[in-house]
Amino acid sequence: MDTYYFPRGSKQLIRVYLHAPAAAPADGYRMMVELPAALYFIDAEPVSGGTPVVEKLGTRRDGEHELTQWAIGYDMLPRPGMDLSMRWGGAGEENLGYQTALAAGGTFDWRRLSKEVTPPKGVQNVRPLVIKWQERGIVGTFWVDNVVLREKGSDVNLLARGNFDDPERGKHSYIQPEGPDGSICVKITSTPEAADRQQAVWVEDSIPIDPEKTYIVEMDVKCEGLTAPNAKPVCGLLMEAPANMAEGSYPIYTYFQDMHGTMIEVPRRSMLEVLPPLKNVRPARARISPCYYASSLVSEAVGEAYAENCRASGITWTYGQIGNNVVEHLMPHGHNVFWSIGWHPYSAPAGQREFLEAHPELQAVDFQGKPQASTFCPTWMLAEGDAVIKSLEEWMLGVLRDQPYAGANWDLEHPVVDPPTFCTCHRCIATFREFAHLAADATVTPQTLLAEHRDAWVDFRCMQNAQMAGILRDIVHKADRPVEFSLYSGYQSRRTREHYGVDWAMMADKLDFAIAGYGGDRASMEATVAALGETPFMGGEMWYLSHRDDERPAPDMRTWRNRILRQYVTSSCRGCLIWWLPPMDGGAFHATSEAAEIIAKYEDYFVHEQRCDGKVQVTGVEARNWAAFEKDGRILVLLMNFSDTPLPASVVVGDRARNVHLAPYGTEIVVIE
Asked: pTM above 0.90?
């Protein structure tokens, strides 16, 4: 049974699975949702695509509860498979994220699809992509032709290559003469063997657009047996619970109808749990920071509601980008944003791509000896690439000049040997030979790097990445106002060094702040803190709710408050990164607000240098689930219960003892004088 958590006095997005067995009608589909009558409907969010139309039908009694019946209608049921995705770009073609414009699945003959699209804020260009996304288990075939992108009210197609028949494309296995009336089109077939592999065709190179205008996207599409066995199409209903709504449990019912209003299935029962209001308390220093980039939330009302929930939950930072429909409502309240720089290591900035193409000898070389056409040799770039770094600097400082970011973060997750990537050119080999103190006649090849010098090679590449981080920090510090430079990667471990190219000990003096996540154990978090020394650091927690499949369970909001608190105190009391904002619901926001309230109340105790676990004995609670801090002769002990049963515990400091009863999933603060 699904449970939806809803703090009273708030607006929350209730995600409803669209019941869609194979025989469900694609046309005229209606999803019926019966919700507590006290809730107000605000807007619909097309989580899985399509254009949902919501209609209020009436009310009925279910025992002591009055329920309102809502019908969610679609011209065509949004099924997974074919995706026309808009790759939004900013200055210098910076990737601001992908957004589905049109999606389809199932089986149907050629039909014309159309939708209005509003570019996210800050967007300057767009590049449409026909894609079957990876890791979604999609199988079947689809055809796409005659893609149009035009301004609303205009008949001018901005896409010169939307019919796919231009000879410049050359031979492409996905381009076939199977469109309407035999025209050239995109045809993508996903076999069971390819179900988790990405298959895609760019419609067009990037074209400039006006973010203040509305655009129409159109295309011809045909599907045959296009499906994902585990997919669950979802629609979001933005509802508001009045402040005086009674707390407690309410039933919810869902079922679907055909176009004639016939009930097709027995209603499924879920529950809505009305919670106390969000705490609306914000810590002075701690950064509880969900990730959010471009406007993944389509509805402006939903974006505004998320902003209200963020603020009332104690969230004062986000990680990603400023130009979206949540952060714009938070910035007037002093909200801060980490800019995710989004620069792939050693890739050519926009102004240097032609130069790199004209100088193939400067291209990075992979372990198979293949040049990397868009990537500079890191050894050359670090030693002689002043012009390239200058282009990178101009772009970064331009972004920081135009947008009021408080921090700039480099997300570095680039493999060194797991798997091996680059660079094995003569410059890198020679520089590595010197770094590793190898004899002049020692044989060094891509093969021996892995077989004989693996650890030294990893250290060498981590050293280069740390050197590059120092360059980025110096660029950020040239901004016309103080901007903090940070880096995101995994926790300190052999895997992080090999798979992400990051050794935090090498990075420490190159950073103003450090971020890692997710899922680290206590040992790996403490190792990261130790490696960073005096550099401030915070780890991350993952709030994950898939709208595509049920392979990973929804998070348990009952443990979320304690997950944030444990991450906060273990990773040196600076904050907690959260992946990611769009799936967060009323339960996530409520538990976050509880954590923020505790942090704010005792923030003067929660200082890494005041940690004093060695002075305290705790029985009944695992070591990783409690922490002690000392201030002004007082010791505060934070105790957390992650189980669904009560937990008796005792706290002993010298000759003073305190017995504590931790409720299921409870949190207790004990202060001993």
From this structure: yes
